[in-house]
Amino acid sequence: MFDVLKIRQDFPILSREVNGKPLVYLDNGASAQKPQVVIDAVTRGYAEEYANVHRGLHYLSNLATDKYEAVRDVIARFLGAQDAQEIVYTTGTTMGINLVSYGWGIPNLQAGDEIILSVLEHHANIVPWHFLRERQGVVIKWVDCDATGALDPQAVIDAITPKTKLIAVTQMSNVTGTVVDVKSICHAAREHGVAVLVDGSQASVHMPVNVEDLGCDFYAITGHKLYGPSASGAIWIRKERMAQMQPFMGGGDMIREVSKDAITWNDAPMKFEAGTPGIVQQIGLGVALDYMMQQGMENIAAHEAGLRDYAMSKLAGLNWLQVQGTTPDKGAIFSFTMDGAGHAHDISTILDKKGVAVRAGQHCAEPLMTHMGLNATCRASFAMYNTTEEVDKLVEALELAHDLFA
Ligand SMILES: Cc1ncc(COP(=O)(O)O)c(C=O)c1O
């Protein structure tokens, strides 16, 4: 049984006050809070079980290595991957996508080859492709969303040409909450031999994911949004694509042998994991994903769908507030603007005085902001521990802000 009040007790920070008010944390799209089991795992990792991994022959090194490596299985289970060796550890989505850009894009793409991006993308799924545009003459083709923020999968499929090598698309927008039908895109892309990278930073937090069912080639997740430590994460890479990749960074665990004249690489996935990794961070991520799976991803999705519907109906009653991105295919992430408000930062500052934490700005998605004709929005983004009472507090704080601006 999904019991939100019980879940809230697992997150110590939720019982604190900010600015003399109970915390209403609605900035989960930026980073989620951590349950006590994750905090304990990180503390134990440093206090009792810390050593470097893969190198030592002593007790602590073996213990840390076993715990660290065991997380690959947890991530594989979480993503519905068949083989844990297809999981490459990263520090988050940004690193995962850069790994694909450098490790797969550089050796496999040439001048004139095309990459399709949607306008919904976060900069982390834009800038690494711009590197290839600037340095290798790769062409970026954009597919826009409609006025509700929805992305038509057919428009993405129609953009495929014989020169298309990659489609890089988010499964859930961090600005509008739009959920993208990536399965249809992957299906069509496969028929054309086009690779698909899915940015799962937001979707993996809010819905069950199965990479085999989606049929993608790369699926990136970021641990700190998944209730895990910052600088933890992973990217799932289909074996056939891994075989096409060169290492990205050099040093440490990615090496088999080095001489003055030659180098050989470790097997994947370690071939793509250079240097001392985020040992305790990854162990904490494993605990966070186990915690999510214990709650049940279907249950989390259903709870958050309830929050989305409740928030949508409440916000619809505020005729001076515009939700940016009203497509029904959306998760519990809302961007909004307000009549009479100066800048989104001002709204956020007033909400903060009421203990309500939201994000304001461009949300690392400037092409989307430009497409929507906006400089900035406020964004409320929900997590499994949020409640309808917190939606009410958000609305109260918004009413206060509106009164102040008026
Ligand atoms: C959709 C999306 N992609 C990528 C990222 C980048 O994630 P990270 O900074 O954890 O690498 C974010 C973070 O906000 C995001 O929301």
Please explain how this structure is put together.
- Helix content is 41%, strand content 17%.
- The chain is α/β, with parallel strands linked by helices and 406 residues long.
- The protein has two domains: 4-30 and 297-405, Aspartate Aminotransferase, domain 1, CATH 3.90.1150; 41-293, Aspartate Aminotransferase, domain 2.
- The strands form five sheets. The protein has a seven-stranded mixed beta sheet, sandwiched between helices.
- 48% of the residues are buried.
- The protein binds pyridoxal-5'-phosphate.
- Residues 92-94, 122, 124-125, 170, 174, 199, 201-202, 222, 224, 364 line the site of pyridoxal-5'-phosphate.
Write the layout of secondary structure elements.
Elements (H helix, E strand, L loop, with lengths): L3 H6 L7 E2 L2 E2 L1 E2 L10 H12 L11 H21 L7 E3 L3 H16 L5 E5 L8 H10 L2 E5 L9 H6 L5 E7 L11 H10 L3 E5 L3 H4 L4 H4 L3 E5 L10 E5 L1 H4 L12 E4 L4 E3 L13 H17 L1 H20 L4 E3 L9 E6 L5 H10 L2 E2 L1 E3 L4 H7 L4 E5 L6 H18 L1
Helix pairs in contact: 2-11, 3-11, 4-5, 12-15
Helix content: 40-55%
CATH C-level class of the largest domain is: Alpha Beta
Per CATH, the architecture of the largest domain is 3-Layer(aba) Sandwich
CATH fold call of the largest domain: Aspartate Aminotransferase, domain 2
Instruction: List the bound ligands.
Output: pyridoxal-5'-phosphate
Low-confidence sequence ranges:
none
| Rg calc | 22 Å
What's the pLDDT, averaged over the residues?
97
The largest pleated sheet is described as:
7 strands, mixed
Taken as a percent bin, the fraction of beta residues is: 15-25%
Total beta strands: 17
CATH homologous superfamily name of the largest domain? Type I PLP-dependent aspartate aminotransferase-like (Major domain)
Q: With helices defined by DSSP (H or I, 4 residues minimum), what is the helix count?
A: 15
- The number of domains is 2
- Which outline best applies? globular
Q: Supply the helix-strand structural class.
A: alpha/beta
Strand order of the largest sheet: 4-10-9-8-7-5-6
Query: Distance between termini?
Result: 45 Å
